[in-house]
Design a protein that fits this description.
Layout lengths: L5 H23 L3 H20 L3 H21 L1 H12 L2 H10 L3 H23 L4 E5 L6 H4 L3 E6 L2 H7 L10 E5 L2 E7 L15 H12 L3 E5 L6 E5 L2 E3 L4 H12 L3
Parallel strand pairs: 1-3
Antiparallel strand pairs: 1-5, 2-4, 3-4, 5-6, 6-7
Length: 257
């Protein structure tokens, strides 16, 4: 008779939660097929070595597991960093802290920052001025900030429009916002290779999607061809975003800063 107790139930729940987190991470980064491959390999390894006691096969698979873990850490270091930050920085902790240090001035700063970006995007949308604005959440974007020019300026409508003006030398790169400040402009972002991205989306859209796949940043794209506003968040791209939806995305992102 099997001895199945509370400890075994907790063990199964912990493994299930870890697999769910890894599944979400792989799905958002477009590497879900790799997740299934690794999961199948682990199942074969457990069945061969633990259930059937196949020593030779188990030994070979043990060696592959040791090397495979190192390779996975190297290939997916950005995703692993995001995974660990998500575990240690849940929204509930932020809400709990705000219960004890709420300040009306914080709401005013948040609203001013959000509306400045919204108005700038609306203006650039009307003039079909291409733009890419990334808002940091919990995962630091310091490495990407260094690829551009550090300006550390207040969030201002005119400043955003001037930076993305077609004749500006910085209009092709991305703008990174964190701590309610424009930290850097002209930044280079990782490009998504997701085959499901519509062909009419350009490099800005792929860069926005790419950053949202390896970090939790919210990226806003203004199309230079159509003037439509798109938002990349959590590895997915939403096109033709309305003003109210854009305000919601930005409020959610900047509230974490």
């Amino acid at each position: 008779m099997l001895d199945f107790g509370i400890k075994d139930i907790l063990d199964i729940l912990i493994v299930a939660m870890l697999l769910y987190y890894v599944y979400r991470l792989m799905k958002s980064s477009g590497t879900l097929s790799l997740f299934y491959g690794v999961l199948l390999f682990i199942v074969i390894w457990v069945v061969a070595s633990e259930i059937f006691g196949m020593r030779m096969t188990g030994t070979i698979l043990d060696k592959f597991m040791g090397i495979g873990l190192i390779v996975l850490v190297i290939l997916f270091q950005d995703q692993i960093k995001r995974f660990l930050i998500d575990i240690g920085s849940q929204r509930k902790l932020k809400v709990f802290r705000k219960l004890f240090r709420h300040d009306d001035r914080d709401d005013e700063v948040l609203h001013a920052s959000v509306m400045a970006v919204v108005y700038a995007c609306m203006s650039m949308s009307k003039s079909k001025t291409g733009a890419l604005i990334c808002v940091q959440r919990r995962v630091p974007l310091g490495d990407y900030e260094k690829t551009g020019d550090i300006i550390d300026a207040d969030i201002n409508v005119r400043l955003i429009e001037n930076i993305f003006f077609k004749n500006s030398p910085l209009h092709d790169g991305a703008m990174i916002i964190s701590d309610h400040r424009i930290k850097s402009v002209g930044c280079i972002l990782p490009v998504s290779h997701d085959m499901n991205v519509p062909k009419n989306f350009g490099l800005r859209h792929r860069a926005a999607l790419g950053l949202s796949q390896v970090t939790d940043a919210v990226c806003v794209v203004v199309s230079e061809e159509t003037g439509h506003i798109s938002v990349a968040d959590n590895g997915s791209l939403k096109s033709k975003v309305s003003t109210s939806d854009l305000e919601h995305f930005l409020s959610d992102a900047l509230a974490i800063n």
